[in-house]
Amino acid sequence: MFIDYSTKLFGVIGKNISYTLSPAIHNYSFEKMGINAVYLAFDIKDEEKFGEIMKGLLEVGEGFNVTIPYKEKVIPLLDGLSKEAEEI
Predict the structure, then answer these.
(1) How far is it, in rounded angstroms, from Cα 68 to Cα 13?
(2) pLDDT above 70 covers what percent of the chain?
(3) Of 31, 37, 39, the residue nearest 6 (C-alpha)
(4) How far apart are CA 81 and CA 45, in angstroms?
């Protein structure tokens, strides 16, 4: 994988997520498909800093999966929700 100025950033955000296989799965797929992107795990242990960290990630990233305990905490930081997400 070659990372340069045009590499897109994706990731999973959660707490205590060192077990996740998401980066390995996504990075393998990006490489096989020739996509200039990287997928990282962001383990945010300090819940008080979540909003500040998320604002920074949303400025530079393309998309993120968010796990518990941050699923509801991220909603006010989003541009919007799909109808299905609102219903859930």
Answers:
(1) 9
(2) 100
(3) 37
(4) 25
Amino acid at position 72, single letter: E
Give residues with Cβ within 8 angstroms of 12, minimum separation 6: 20, 22, 23, 39, 40, 41, 42, 64, 65, 66, 67
Tell me the H-state helices in the chain: 22-33, 50-60, 83-87
Question: Of 14, 5, 11, 10, which Cα lies nearest the Cα of 70?
Answer: 14
3-state secondary structure of 67: coil
- Residues annotated as part of the active site: 71
Beta bridge partners of 66: 13
User: How far is CA 42 from its chain centroid?
Assistant: 7
| For residue 2, pLDDT beyond 90 | no
Helix, strand, coil abundance in the chain, percent, nearest 5 = 40, 20, 40
